[in-house]
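Good morning N.,

You mentioned wanting to compare the apo and holo forms, so I went ahead and generated the holo version with adenosine-5'-triphosphate. This is what I fed in:
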Amino acid sequence: MKVTDTIRRAGRSLRNAKARTLLTSLAIGVGAFTIILSLAAGAGGRQYAQDIVASNTNVLELYVQPKQDDQSDSSKPKEYSEDPSISYGGGFSLKLLQQSDIDKIEKIDGVEDITPVYNVSAKYVTREGQKKYQASIESFTSTLKQEYVAGNGDTMGANDVVIPEAFREVLGFVDNSAAIGQNVTVAVDGATLGAPDKVVTLKVVGVVGESALASIGGSAGLQLNKDIVKELYQYSQAGTPNENAYTGATVTAISESKVQDIKTAINSQGYEAQTAEDLMGFIFQFINVLQGILIGFGALAVLTSIFGIINTQYISVLERTQQIGLMKALGMRRRDVGRLFKFEAAWIGFLGGALGSGLAFIAGTAANPWIRDTLNLGDDTNLLIFEPWSFVAVIVGLMLVSIGAGILPARKAARLDPIEALRTE
Amino acid sequence: MIEVTQLTKTYGKKHNIFTALDDVSFTIPDGASVAILGKSGSGKSTLMHAMSGLDRPQTGKVVIDGEDILTLKTKAVDKFRATKMSFIFQSFFIQANENCYDNVSLPLEIANVPLKERRKRVTDALESVELGDKIKSKAKNLSGGQKQRLAIARAIVNKPQIIFADEPTGNLDSATGEKVEDILFGYNKKNGVTLIIVTHDPDLARKCDMQINVKDGKIESIRESKTKSIANVTKKGVSTV
Ligand SMILES: Nc1ncnc2c1ncn2[C@@H]1O[C@H](COP(=O)(O)OP(=O)(O)OP(=O)(O)O)[C@@H](O)[C@H]1O
Ligand SMILES: [Mg+2]
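and this is what came out, ligand included:
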């Protein structure tokens, strides 16, 4: 018997038992629905995270650190090295980058620029007639997309500063725009005992709103011009062994396509480089785990529906004993009888898959605007993104699962003795 | 020619052994119409199943066209049945939910006949049993006689050499039954197809060229009708329906 004829006959027997077919495939449909929505949520979540990462980190940048020694066994004595490092108690130490390392990395193909991390914090920041506040200091980078609530950093001069909205408040400016053009004073501790504080006066050019990433480790410090940060850092380290040594450095690539190559090159030279994507990897991991759990629920639904299919198909074989007997008497081969029932199962899987993913698509498309409003996502951000491959994969996958479930009943049908099947009651 | 030699079929084991066919031998010439007669439980159906390769008796031979079908592999026997044999049953065994066309098309699909040829053959077969106008009707909506005629259409559509009919008129009233008989014998005469009918009905048996009486699994007697000369029926091959 030709496969096409078998498929047609299989489809027809299902049409003759519409209610049963529909109910059985609905069970699979629940699984398909859940899995399709999970995949859509995962895709949408990753896209959304990508957008956040892109607007809060610079995709051209890599963060470089020295490769740290294995510190898992602190009882083992470690060899002394002349290289600068920060030592903590208990035999732990943090290796630092030196100027020679910086120079080496700068020569790597595709590197546009390298800036050491000037790890310095302000002793305090203040303004005439205001209290003094602790603050962290960061280098201003123009490539970072920030949400300015007043002014901006476009014309960042040597003595300019961008402050977070929170500091605008405590420093006594009545509103955001009132801060623009005003001076604030920043003081940094000297490196050695008795060295005087270094005090600089800076002009506020921009106020930034709360970063979307502030809650997951984004910055909330004062952003100063790179040169003055360097100056302050050097002042705070002058005369110590760690002068001209850095905990890390930020490398900027000339193009996004180079980022991965640069990472490989830096790593092969004995450093550890992380791309913006690496740094944000945990967000994706989180989304993937969540998606995995959702898909797990879908898989559970599919698993349950397998028993439904087995049951339905067994009943179908019993009901159609005479038909099977007749077909075998007419010379239909065992293999073809088995196939007929496997194809029936496949049809059920197809129907369930198509039904479930169709409903998921409709429901998801309808829910997207509502989710956008509720979660305050951007104007054209969809949290559920349906990718065509997921429909194909889910439907084909469910058809295979259904065929698997149909194997036992199909075998029963194929092995039926035609004489017994045709015995009149 | 169908040669049955020393066919023995038993059911059960040891103390419970039951011999349904006991050393049965006979020969049926091509194109003959044969009635297998006997009381209920005498082994008529068992004999028919053995002759068609549906059943595998313990000993004996069934030689059709020089080939012992009992020694063939399942696949080969299936092919044999798909291309050279057909069945008609007392309770029709048509697919109630399918239309007449699909019912009749089944043997052709099983025998891998191409779609185009199928269409013509199905229509011809239905027309020859006067169901040409019911081609799209659901089988369950047919009357008893129409159902059996549909079964006959299904049996002749693959142009078989042998048609087995197990009590083909058993479920029909005499008038309807007669019409079915006429169609069967007409086809048998016109196309030289061997017709083997299992029956209780002596009137039907009398219309056949040959009567095989079965009793308790043994051949009681074989009678050949004087009016017809079986020897004259030559192997014509199977012409169109
Ligand atoms: N699977 C089986 N197991 C045991 N005995 C069987 C089996 N099949 C048939 N028989 C027995 O074999 C004998 C012949 O059965 P068969 O069906 O050939 O009778 P029959 O002549 O066709 O009768 P009827 O006219 O009632 O159809 C019966 O006694 C029956 O009980
Ligand atoms: Mg019988």
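Residues 3-54+282-423 of chain A form one domain.

Happy to go through it together on a call whenever suits you.

Best,
F.
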